[in-house]
Design a protein that fits this description.
The chain is an alpha+beta fold and 330 residues long. Helices cover 50% and strands 8% of the residues. Helix 12 (275-291) crosses helix 14.
Length: 330
């Protein structure tokens, strides 16, 4: 699971707009997220990914095709300057290469890729490491939005050749053609959609070299700032990950990083996370790996991850993933 870095209220606002005709649901949608209704009117408000996912989980209880619906509303303008840099690219292929060059600026929960196989170009989403219960939802939102981005870039609807999904066919699969009007395959080997590779050479209607250079320079600056923060956070995660069996606590961790606890706490807050959240994420990552190994009993995993009691580990894993460790292993 990646750290819960800061993001905008865009997805949360889309969810609330989707249920705008039922204002009585606002409180239910924001429950346990730490987001107040008053925050919604502030353009500069930033929230963590954890807060965003909580609102998504709340909304998913009300509508099971939520991911598809949100994806169909997330135009390229939702991705900020990297979206405008892509719009001003010379060709469709250039735009895609730009988007894949700056995944951090897209704010996706997945590792995105584009591969040409014969006459088809496949856009895929992989390597999801967040709440397991929200994987299908996030994947639907991601791929549906990427398909919409294709349409926005080209200024016309891109006809798809195929779409594949690793999970079983959902009960609402009849709504998939709204985004993926092509042959669908579930229980497939990847999560991806395909289109004729010849489209990659298509010149974009909004291509503008002057605007593109300006937007590209801004993307590079923003990405450099993000990379610097990520490098520091990677050091924090490494130190904490090496001590999972006996977590050092925030004060000792700060000593190891040669800073004060207050400084460490402030830096983590600026990145949209905190000590306990990082510890939980690292424990969850390792727990999933160990649960895939049959020779590791659950009581041993609990001890290895620094839990004094197996019951405490079971409760924590249920909170992280939505299922108990025994069911996850099965």
């Amino acid at each position: 699971m990646l750290h819960a870095h800061l993001t905008t209220l865009h997805v949360v606002s889309l969810i609330l707009d989707l249920f705008a005709e039922q204002p009585e649901l606002t409180e239910q949608l924001l429950a346990d997220s730490g987001i107040a209704a008053a925050d919604l009117g502030c353009a500069d408000t930033r929230i963590t990914r954890t807060q965003e996912l909580q609102v998504c989980a709340n909304a998913l209880l009300l509508r099971n095709d939520l991911g598809l619906e949100l994806g169909r509303r997330m135009h390229i303008s939702a991705y900020g300057m990297v979206g405008y840099a892509a719009l001003s690219s010379a060709t469709f292929g250039d735009a895609w290469r730009l988007l894949l060059q700056y995944p951090a600026l897209l704010g996706t929960y997945f590792r995105l890729d584009l591969q040409v196989e014969g006459e088809l170009a496949w856009v895929s989403a992989d390597d999801y490491r967040h709440a397991a219960a929200l994987e299908v939802f996030n994947l639907e939102m991601c791929l549906a939005s990427l398909k919409l981005i294709c349409d926005d870039l080209l200024g016309q609807r891109l006809e798809l050749s195929a779409a594949q999904f690793r999970y079983a066919e959902p009960t609402y699969s009849a709504r998939y053609p709204l985004s993926f009007a092509c042959p669908l395959q579930f229980n497939a080997r990847r999560n991806a959609f395909a289109f004729p590779a010849a489209w990659l050479d298509k010149r974009l209607p909004l291509a503008d070299p002057v605007t593109h250079r300006e937007m590209l320079a801004r993307c590079r600056k923003q990405n450099a700032e993000f990379t610097t923060r990520q490098a520091w956070l990677a050091r924090v995660r490494q130190l904490l990950g090496d001590q999972l069996s006996t977590p050092p606590g925030l004060e000792l961790l700060a000593q190891q990083l040669h800073c004060s606890p207050r400084t460490l706490r402030r830096h983590l807050q600026e990145l949209g996370t905190h000590y306990q959240e990082l510890l939980d994420e690292l424990r969850f990552e390792q727990a999933k790996d160990l649960l895939s190994q049959e020779d590791w009993p659950i009581c041993r995993i609990a001890e290895h991850l620094g839990f004094s009691e197996t019951a405490s580990f079971r409760h924590a894993f249920q909170r992280w993933s939505g299922v108990p460790p025994s069911r996850f292993r099965a």
